[in-house]
Every structure is written in C-alpha cells, then in structure tokens.
Prior knowledge:
The protein is of the alpha+beta class. The chain is built from 4 helices and 4 strands, in the order αβββααβα. It has helices spanning 14-22, 75-86, 88-93, 108-122; strands spanning 36-37, 47-53, 59-65, 96-102. A hairpin with a 5-residue loop joins strand 2 and strand 3 (59-65).
Amino acid sequence: MTDTTWAGVVVITDDRYAMLARLAGQWLVEPHPEPIPISKDSGYEDKAIYIAVNRNGNACYCGKTAPTRALNRGAAATRLSQHINTSTSKRDEWVEYWVIPLRDATPGHVVSALEETVAARLGISLVHRTRMPRQRT
C-alpha cells in the first residue's frame, strides 16, 4: 500500500482563516489567526477543526477533534501527531496547521458539519478518508 500525497489546492491566508473561523459562530472560543508548526502544541482545546498545510501554505487536509478522554495537550496537536506517525506522506508534506478552537459544549453534529463546510470551502474532499473494510480472501 502506498501513501497518497495531497498537494493542497488553496493557500491559507489570515483573511481566509478569519472567514473560516467565523463559520463556527457562537461555538468559536477565539480565533487563532496564525499557523502553528506541526510539532508544536495548539493549546488545550478539546474540540476543534484543524487544517494541515504544506510548505507553500496550501491546505492539504481538514480534520476535526472530539476526544473521548482527557488530553495533556491540545486535541488538534494530538490528532495531527497521530496522522504523521502513521503516514510517511503526511509527515513529509505537512509543516504547519491552523486551528479553529471550539467550545467544549459544541455538539458533535455541529463539529462534524463545520468540518464538512470548512473542507468544502477549501476544496478538500472528505471522501478519500472513508475507511474501506478489508476484504478477506
């Protein structure tokens, strides 16, 4: 199996981030309008939308966090670590990420809908992430 490289399609700018953060409405904790190096912690948010970017600042991936247990660091940083530890292409490609921190009380369906909306605005497909069951032979 080979890793797929997602080269990104849209550059994340301060203005673009601000527009995406506003989509969270009442659920936004506060904007974090700067990219964070992939190895750095984003804070202590539990629920968030995160956008991984490559060296050119192009959005490569949009994800969500909704941990089921307490974490020692931000959920976005924890989730990104999981991604890059299991995928060579992600580790090689992703250099920074942007985070939209959400209130702890944000309902799961709101987090999911926001992830879909942010991904759509960035032209990032969520379809490639659908897990396919293994076929037994």
